[in-house]
Amino acid sequence: MTSTVPNAVQHADERQPPITMFGPDFPYAYDDFLAHPAGLGQIPATEHGTEVAVIGGGLSGIVAAYELMKMGLKPVVYEADQIGGRLRTVGFDGCDPSLTAEMGAMRFPPSSTALQHYIDLVGLETRPFPNPLAEATPSTVVDLKGESHYATTVDDLPQVYRDVMHAWNACLEEGADFSDMNRAMRERDVPRIREIWSKLVEKLDNQTFYGFLCDSESFKSFRHREIFGQVGFGTGGWDTDFPNSILEILRVVYTEADDHHRGIVGGSQQLPLRLWDREPQKIVHWPYGTSLASLHVNGEPRPAVTRLHRTAGNGITVTDANGDIRTYQAAIFTAQSWMLLSKIACDDSLFPIDHWTAIERTHYMESSKLFVPVDRPFWLDKDEETGRDVMSMTLTDRMTRGTYLLDDGPDKPAVICLSYTWCDDSLKWLPLSANERMEVMLKSLGEIYPKVDIRKHVIGSPVTVSWENEPYFMGAFKANLPGHYRYQRRLFTHFMQDRLPADKRGVFLAGDDISWTAGWAEGAVQTALNAVWGVMHQLGGATDPTNPGPGDVYDEIAPIELPED
Question: Between vectors from CA 362 to CA 361 and to CA 368, what angle results, nearest 5°?
C-alpha cells in the first residue's frame, strides 16, 4: 500500500522473509510455534477433562479455548454479550444479508502472521482494504481547511504533502533507527532487535508522539506537524495519538502494522464464530467431532462473570450472572482489564498489587464508526467535467475525519463508512443518535462533494458504535501514555507465573490490551497463546523440545526491564 505519507524505507522484496508483528519487545515467532507439526504442547493424562475458565469470548478467549480443548482440557467460556468481542460484524435491517459493517476490527496487516494462521485454518478469504492511496483504492481526496485535493498516488498531491512525507521518513531514521530495526525484524535477528530496542526504550519511554516529532529537525515546521496529524500515514490522521507514548507508534511502523491492509470477506466476526464451531482433526482426550460449541450447554457460552475470588487451595471461583458458582484450578481473563475494576467484583488477592496498579493505569482510546448501505458503488461514476471519480476515499479535518467506500462489484449494493474517528473526534459524536450522526456527516461530505447526492443512494438505516459507550468495553483499545512501559511489561509477562507467589497464580491475563500491540488482533492471538502455555505449564504439561513455547524461551528474549519496575 502507498500511504498518504509513506514509510521511509522501501519494503523489502518478496524474496526476503515476511515481517511479523512479534516484537520488538518480545521477539518470539508465534507463527512458527503454530505451524510446527509437534503442536503447542501436552498435559498429563491425569489432567484430561479438567475445566479451565475462559472469561471473555472475543478473539483472544476463543483462540485460547480452542487450543486448550485440543490439549484435552475443557474450556468453560463466559461471555457477557456475543462471541467476537471487537470483531463485531453487523448487517442492515431489511437489506441483503451480504451487506455488512465492521463495527470493530476491519483491516489486518500481513505482518499479523499468527492471526493469519487462524484465518487460513477456518477457510476465510481476505482482500485488499481501501485505505488512503492504497492500490485497491480507486482515488483519495484529502480535504483540509476547506481545500480539497484529488489523488490516485501521492505524486498527485501538492508538494507540501511530499515534504511532510520526507520529514516523517527523516524523523524515523534520526530518532528511531528505523532502517536497522525494520531490517532486523524482517531477518528475525533477535540480538540486533534487542540491542536497538533496549536503547530506545530507555531513551523514549517518557516521550509523547508529538514530542518526538518536535525534537526532530525535520519537523520544526508547525504546519508540517499539523498536516501530518490530520493526514498521517497508512490509515489516516494520527493526531489523536499525539499524546500517547512514541514507543506505541514505533511498534506499529517497525512491524508494518499500518501497511498493506486486508479485510476479511464476509466480516471479521466469522473468525471467532467458526473457531467456536470448528471440530479439530487433531485432538486429545475428546472424541472426534468435538467443538467448543459441543462442550457448552445448547452450544452457548456461559453468561457474564459478576465475581472472581480465591478459595481454599488457591482455587479460582467464578460467579456468573445466573448466580452459578464454579471453582477452577486455572482461569484465563481476556475481557478488557477495566472490567476487573468495575463490572466484576474481585478480591485484591487475585493479582499482586503492582499488577493491580498496571490494570488501573491502562489508558483506553475512544472510537466511533457509522455505516450506511447504498444501492451501488456510485462513487465510481465519472464527473463529466473532470473525468474523475465523483466521490473518493476521504481524509478531512471536518467532523467525519475518515470516510471509506466498500463495494463487492459495480452492480451490487455497497456500504459507506461515513465516518471513523478516535478520541476527542469520537467523543464529539457521543450524544448523537445514529440518524443524527448521519445528518451531520452528510452535511460535511456535501461540502466536499457538492455535486453528489449521497442520500438518494442510501437504502437502509445507518448502524453506529461508540466503543467508549459499550458497557463491556468502555473504550476501543489500549494506548500507553508516556511512562507506561513498566505497566505494560507487568501485564504482558503475567503468564510467567513461576515468578509469582503461589497464592497469586492461576489467573492468566490475555487480550490485545495485555499485548504490546493493542488495537491489533495479532496481539489478542499472541497473548492467548501465552496464556495457553501458562495453563499448560501450571497443570504439569510441557511443549515438545523441538517446538519451545513462549515461556520456554522467555529468559532469552524477556522484555527489557527498566529501573524501579
Answer: 135
Amino acid at the residue 319 = T
* Mode of pairing for the β-strands spanning 305-311 and 345-346: parallel
- The answer to whether 465 touches 188, Cβ cutoff 8 Å, is no
- Edge-first strand order for the sheet with 463-466 is 147-151, 140-144, 393-396, 402-406, 414-422, 367-374, 463-466
431 grid coordinates? 450524544
| Cα dihedral 32, 33, 38, 39 sign | negative
pLDDT in tens, 117-161: 999 999 999 999 999 999 999 999 999 999 999 999 989 999 999
Condensed to tens digits (0 to 9), the pLDDT of residues 461-515 reads 999 999 999 999 989 999 999 999 999 999 999 999 998 999 999 999 999 999 9
Neighbours of 498 (CB within 10 A): 11
DSSP H helices, 362-451, are: 423-427, 434-448
pTM: 0.95
Of 137, 108, 126, residue with least CA distance to 2:
137
Number of H helices, E strands in the chain: 16, 21
The cell for 501 is 507467589
Cis peptide leading into 24, omega within 30 of 0?
yes
